[in-house]
Design goal:
The complex is a heterotrimer of chains A (about 260), B (about 120) and C (about 300). Chain A has about 260 residues and is mainly α. Chain A has one domain. Chain A contains 7 helices and no strands. The two termini of chain A are about 45 Å apart. In chain B, helix 1 crosses helix 3. Chain B has 2 domains: about 70 residues, Orthogonal Bundle (Arc Repressor Mutant, subunit A); about 45 residues. The chains are: A mainly alpha (about 260), B mainly alpha (about 120), C alpha/beta (about 300).
């Protein structure tokens, strides 16, 4: 029996996109739904800002004195916590979808890291800018500091950028590790991870107490300042990110 | 139309043959494409293609490059001849077997055939 | 058209366990390129697990898998040519259907936006609605549209159309056949609605309890069994010594499904006053699956109102 060809021959001319393109595709995926990844963090910061503003204005209006102590304000810390949690959520939600779109885990992880880095860059830029705004307006004329807090918002430009960016990235890295652990082992994995971290923390506290090293620890923090601390955090940041990758590599994607 | 009684590609081939014999597909006319057959009967295009291929092999259809499949000249006669040959196994033998089952003798059968032939 | 050159998927000795349960048991299989292959079997037989391991979404315990000649796991060269549409695909929260269709072209080089738009219309899918708020049928439609419009050289459909009503399913089959005709590619369709897709399949693979029990062309599968019907005595005489796949009876009538009968044997049956009936693909698979899981020769799976035990 002779073979008859149908109207179109079987042709597979699919080109494989380059690695860079594939990673970028995952990054774009994270931002596809503009609201939760882009708008929401700003809404949260905006809300915190407004709350602070209301408080400052009420105090200033009643006392007519320059505010004191606001440079210790930790209100921007909320955003770090949010990013850590958002990282876990983002991975949990997008991993299976990306797998469903035939992405590799490696491309997914790298693309996700890039997405987090972009978020970090954006926030660093804006927070740093706002810190200068607060400086120039002398705390809105009230010596009110939110973005120009003592932790990240003071000092030379490079210091502000460095501290803010790597502080964000540290949170994202932890979030990526937690996200990978959650994707692979679900809640049990997270509990275990939390337990390990807790044990390490308690262990550190125990050792420090037993060796009477608290003053030394305090001194170290004071000497290093935020910049130094953040610089040291680079190590656990990289370690978390790498462990996170290896955890995700073997994560099955089941419905 | 398409059932489980025999391979689907055979049923497609037979349907085309029936259309040629009945005159619905005149000689030198174009036959629907395999995709059209597939869509109509809701079957795999490859299967429809196989049915068409059988007819091409038999010389009933031929291909005009870039246009499609056409009914070959003289195919109707050839199909009628082929059907006449298989008439005996396809219709006569079962008829005899059924008649035997019902206890109708060959002589009675002959009578029935003449009567029915005259009536129609 | 099928090209019998290099198989697009080659699996050998594949085993996958989930704890104590052996989901895939030493599976060996090749999938020919350019054909629509049905991966059939009961719920829990291992269809999904097989597809998950072939596409690198889950990991086998042992065995070899080659897709387009290479290992599929973490292999972008292979994976970018695969589309795996499964029931229960999770989408990012807050995603709307339109976001899915916006992302799909990035991952599928052959994506046809026009075709996708037409399908969205055919399935009446509300693209601006949150995925979470879609009905089961609409959710299935999203998967089906992605699978069809992706035009991936190797496309898997893992029962993604279960949520679709009969009309929508028919639309899916029609679009699939039409597009397959225009753009041939390898399609693997898993389902337990065998009758609906039987005529669309070129090749049939049946899996039962993690083992491949049938792997042949659809035509050959259909010819592999026949139902013989007639008076009990005549039937018993005819089937003596033959492998019986299934037996039914009522009153003095018996209906037995036996293995392939050649032309001579068919004539013999007709001469004995017996009737021959074809076996549909669904009946064949149901009966083969049943006999694979019950002892051959033990209690028949479905004897209906049998008079005396034959």
């Amino acid at each position: 029996m002779t073979a008859i060809s149908t109207t179109a021959a079987l042709r597979d001319t699919t080109a494989v996109p380059s690695t860079g393109r594939r990673i970028w595709n995952v990054t774009r995926l994270h931002f596809a739904n503009r609201f939760s990844m882009i708008a929401l963090p700003w809404i949260i910061i905006g809300f915190i800002y407004l709350v602070n503003l209301v408080i400052w204005i009420s105090i200033f209006a009643s006392t007519h004195e320059q505010l004191t102590g606001t440079q210790w304000s930790g209100s921007t810390m909320y955003i770090f916590v949010y990013f850590g949690i958002a990282a876990v959520q983002a991975m949990n939600l997008t991993f299976r979808f990306a797998m469903g779109m035939s992405a590799t885990r490696r491309d997914y992880y790298l693309g996700t890291v890039v997405a987090f880095a972009l978020q970090g860059l954006l926030f660093t830029a804006v927070c740093t800018l706002l810190s200068y705004v607060e400086d120039w307006t002398n705390g809105y004329g009230m010596s009110a500091h939110m973005f120009s807090n003592i932790y990240m918002g003071t000092g030379p430009l490079w210091q502000r950028l460095f501290t803010a960016f790597f502080a964000f990235m540290f949170c994202f890295a932890l979030g990526a590790l937690a996200g990978s652990v959650f994707v692979r082992w679900r809640s049990n994995g997270l509990y275990l991870l939390g337990a390990i971290v807790a044990v390490l923390g308690v262990g550190f506290v125990a050792v420090t107490t037993l060796t009477g090293s608290w003053p030394a620890v305090g001194a170290w923090f004071a000497d290093s300042r935020t910049v130094g601390v953040v610089a040291w955090l680079l190590i656990p940041m990289v370690v978390s990110a790498v462990i996170g990758y290896f955890v995700l590599r073997k994560a099955p994607s089941r419905a | 139309m398409i059932d489980d009684s025999k391979p689907i590609f055979q049923q497609i081939a037979e349907q085309i043959e029936n259309d040629i014999i009945s005159g619905a597909l005149p000689e030198e006319s174009q036959v629907p494409s395999t995709n059209e057959f597939a869509a109509f009967h809701r079957i795999n295009p490859a299967t429809a293609g196989k049915g068409v291929a059988v007819l091409v092999d038999d010389g009933v259809l031929y291909k005009k490059r870039g246009i499609g499949m056409f009914v070959a000249t003289g195919s109707r006669e050839r199909l009628l001849a082929k059907r006449r040959e298989s008439f005996r196994t396809d219709f006569v033998a079962p008829l005899i077997a059924e008649a035997k089952k019902l206890g109708i003798s060959p002589a009675q059968l002959n009578q029935l055939i003449s009567e029915e032939g005259e009536a129609s | 058209m099928t090209d019998t050159a290099t198989p697009v998927v080659e699996v050998s000795g594949l085993t996958k366990r989930f704890g104590d349960v052996v989901a895939l048991d030493d599976v060996t299989l090749t999938v020919r390129p350019g054909a629509i292959t049905g991966l059939l079997g009961r719920n829990g037989a291992g269809k999904t697990t097989l597809m998950q391991t072939i596409t690198g979404q889950d990991f086998a315990n042992s065995g070899e898998i080659r897709v387009f000649g290479e290992h599929p796991v973490e292999n972008a060269k292979v994976l970018s040519r695969i589309s795996f549409i499964k029931e229960g695909q999770k989408y990012p929260d807050e995603f709307k259907a339109k976001h899915v269709f916006a992302c799909a072209p990035w991952f599928y080089e052959n994506w046809d936006a026009e075709f996708a738009a037409q399908l969205i219309d055919d399935f009446q899918l509300p693209v601006n609605r949150r995925i979470r708020k879609l009905s089961r049928g609409q959710l299935s439609a999203v998967g089906v549209i992605v699978g069809l419009a992706s035009r991936a050289p190797l496309t898997f459909f893992d029962e993604p159309y279960l949520g679709l009503d009969a009309v929508a399913r028919q639309t899916f089959y029609d679009r699939l056949l039409a597009d397959y005709g225009e753009h041939p590619r390898t399609i693997i369709l898993s389902t337990h609605l065998i009758d609906e897709v039987a005529n669309m399949l070129e090749h049939v693979v049946v899996i039962d309890r993690g083992r491949i029990i049938m792997d042949e062309s659809a035509d050959s599968a259909r010819e592999s069994a026949t139902t013989v019907v007639g008076p009990r005595g005549a039937i018993d005489a005819f089937v003596a010594g033959r492998r019986v796949l299934h037996r039914e009876g009522i009153g003095g009538l018996a209906s037995v499904t036996v293995e392939r009968l050649d032309a001579d044997e068919r004539r013999e049956a007709l001469a004995a006053g017996l009737e021959l009936a074809p076996v549909s693909l669904q009946q064949l698979i149901v009966r083969t699956t049943n006999s694979a899981t019950t002892d051959f020769g033990a209690e028949e799976p479905s004897s209906i109102k049998e008079g005396t035990r034959s």
